[in-house]
């Protein structure tokens, strides 16, 4: 059973093909990692699938419906959520508010009720905040709920962004380098969090450079190089593939992968 | 800091108390007039601050909507025989309609481009008000019929003081309501990161448009109130300088701060009155004060002051 399927995705900037004929699919509860060296087209692929880039070739299906070219907010309404490589936290809002914004699609949003802040709005606010606090509690951010998100340390921001995406109760979650810049403890946290997400039946697509993490948690791995698919397979298949090991991960990456 | 600090009803109560007690210190009716001007300008600035401070979109043509509201209460009763209050509502509806129509294409623009597009809109409105002299009296403006409320003919500075003060409390209440609701959070989210707002499902262009329409309605009502208060309108009220004045009130007082907009309006309206004692140096001093306060209070007067207070409270 496939929930997200990307077929023949291609993007060119100017005359340059950033990605060419890349396809992948994920099922609920599955973790698919996309790896490759810098410039391989991983983030570009994410931007096409999540509707941030509209110009592209190929087709994206979400829950069996063609959603190619839909705007990100429409895709969000259909259950696709994502995080960003360069953090996109709402810095001038509190940590709790960031998660509450993540509930936007789950809330009634009526301008006139909001202008008058009717009792129904206050009730909903309270309920949304409770949900937000519970989610923050899961990732150890409950105590920072009322500080400005811009003042959080980097690792906490990473977790906050994932929690914000989860607040929308997505069916597919795209994570762009969730462990980048994290220390060992923080990476451990991300590892645990991503597994929890998958255990809830959410399909996870992960772009990540931390090979140890990728080898540990992925069900399948898609390897990109120069905008094209090099190989797709299980962590074992990818690890044992000589092309990936030598020409692609390099000696250092090969050693690290072998140790994992 | 005490727990009630920053709560919207505490803010509103404080505002009501200030409005209620201020006349005790007025030595003459002239002060009622200046204070009413502050309340009306603050009302417009609060609306603009929803657009600029919450949703993060600039408008350099907001006086256009102010002028539309002002001329609505001038033209409606004089040329169309409408009651004044109906003309005020009509002005607000027309302003909202124009904001909705024009906002759709121009709110796609960002930063400087949006600033220039809104500037153009304001200039256009002022131009129409100046040239359609058969309706508007041209550059000289026209007089406005007195407001009649339940058979009471409203006149005098103190009557307008209380009406504009009441209006300001209402406007502040609505703006304070909005900030912590799904709509207000959507505004603030798209202000911080449009792409992240989209990804959590916020229809960014719809919410920008909402903020623009809300701000235009505030400006229009403020314009109507000022016109009725003055008994007179002229095209300057829709002009570029007035737009800049409104933006200055918002930024000087503090983006996103309702109290800040009131303080900003008070500074820009009341300070020139104080500075008249320096005669020809009045404008020079006003400009200097604005420059210096922006250098030392980059977030605006009220946010800077409250940050200082909370730091002292913790120490």
Q: What's the CATH H-level superfamily name of the largest domain in chain A?
A: P-loop containing nucleotide triphosphate hydrolases
N-to-C terminal Cα separation of chain B, in Å? 11 Å
- The residue-averaged pLDDT of chain A reads 90
Could you tell me how far the N terminus lies from the C terminus of chain A, measured between alpha carbons in angstroms? Answer: 29 Å
Secondary-structure element pattern of chain B, one letter each = HHHHHHEEEHHHHEHHHH
Oligomer: heterodimer
Helix content of chain A: 40-55%
Which strand order spans the largest sheet of chain B, edge to edge or round the barrel?
A: 1-4
The domain tally of chain A reads 2
- List unreliable stretches of 5+ residues of chain A: none
| Form type of chain B | globular
- Please tell me the total number of domains of chain B: 1
CATH architecture type of the largest domain in chain A: 3-Layer(aba) Sandwich
Name some characteristics of this structure.
heterodimer, A: about 260 residues, alpha/beta, Rossmann fold, six-stranded mixed β-sheet, four-stranded antiparallel β-sheet, 11 helices, 10 strands, about 25% strand, globular, B: about 325 residues, mainly alpha, two-stranded antiparallel sheet, two-stranded antiparallel ribbon, 4 strands, about 75% helix
How is this structure best described in words?
The complex is a heterodimer of chains A (260) and B (315). With 260 residues, chain A is of the alpha/beta class. Chain A has 2 domains: 178 residues, Rossmann fold, CATH 3.40.50.300; 62 residues, no CATH class. Helix content of chain A is 41%, strand content 23%. Chain A has 11 helices and 10 strands. A 6-stranded mixed beta sheet of chain A has the order 6-7-8-3-9-10, with helices on both faces. In chain A, a hairpin with a 2-residue loop joins strand 9 and strand 10. In chain A, helix 5 packs across helix 6 and helix 6 packs parallel to helix 7. The longest helix of chain A has 20 residues. Chain B is mainly alpha-helical and 315 residues long. Chain B has one domain. Chain B has a two-stranded antiparallel sheet with strand order 1-4. A two-stranded antiparallel ribbon of chain B has the order 2-3. In chain B, helix 4 runs antiparallel to helix 10.
